[in-house]
Amino acid sequence: MSDENDARARDSATRDEKVDEEVVDAEVVDDPRAPASEETDGNDAADQVERDLDELAETKRERDEYLELAQRTRADFDNYRKRVARETSEALARGKAELARELLPVIDNLERALNVGEDASAHEALARGVAMVHDELRGRLENAGVEAFDPIGERFDPQLHEALSTRPEEGTEPGMVVETLEKGYRLNGQVLRPARVVVSK
User: Fold this and answer.
1) pLDDT in tens, 147-173
2) Nearest 5°: CA angle at 85, between 80 and 90?
3) How much helix, strand and coil, in percent to the nearest 5, is found in the chain?
4) Whole-prediction pTM value?
5) Rounded to the nearest 10 degrees, what angle do helices 33-119 and 124-143 cross at?
């Protein structure tokens, strides 16, 4: 009976040792798998960071393109605004010049009438009326920037004067303006009409 119990105890101990060996083997087999999983997680994280960096670079590139487009558009608009302002100013100046040219003959005729009125005392009232119109018209032209110039006594300048005739003038060197037949007019320094003059020879 004792021998049977001993045999059972040995069989049981042998079985326990086998079970322990299997458990140890199982644990040994499971351990190598854990580092492989951690390595895979690390690769996924690196790939995600790389993708994020690529997206960020693409976003910055798009931002730079939009910024450049906005700057170009703003520069184009500024140039357009300046061009329109310049063209408007030039058109206004052209309009004033055209108006002044149309009015200059009126001034000439009024001045002729005034010269006649000075010699005829019977026409004093007419002369005063013409003088008032003449002064008002000249005032309006001056307000628009138009100025008259009388070059008598100056050297003839074809840019400013138009010689209608020449005559000898004692005590005057040739090429001098000796008489102004019609005054010249300027608008902001630009000659609207040259003075019509007689030049010494």
Assistant:
1) 999 999 999 999 999 999 999 988 899
2) 125
3) 70, 15, 15
4) 0.48
5) 170
Look up residue 130 and give its two tokens. 């013409």
Hey, what are 91's tokens? 């058109």
- Residues 187/97, Cβ–Cβ less than 8 Å: yes
- Is residue 191 within 8 Å of residue 160, measured between CB atoms? yes
Alpha carbons 186 and 151: distance in angstroms, whole number: 13
SS (H, E, C) 123-165: HHHHHHHHHHHHHHHHHHHHHCCEEEECCCCCECCCCCEEEEE
* CA-CA-CA-CA torsion sign (166, 170, 174, 175): negative
Q: What are phi and psi of 185, to 5 degrees?
A: -135, 140
Q: For residue 116, is pLDDT > 70?
A: no
**110 and 134 Cβ atoms separated by less than 8 Å:** yes
Please report, to the nearest 10 degrees, the dihedral formed by the alpha carbons of residues 43, 46, 50, 52 taken in order: 120
What distance lies between CA 174 and its chain's CA centroid?
A: 52
For residues 195 and 80, give the distance between their C-alpha atoms in angstroms, rounded to a whole number. 39
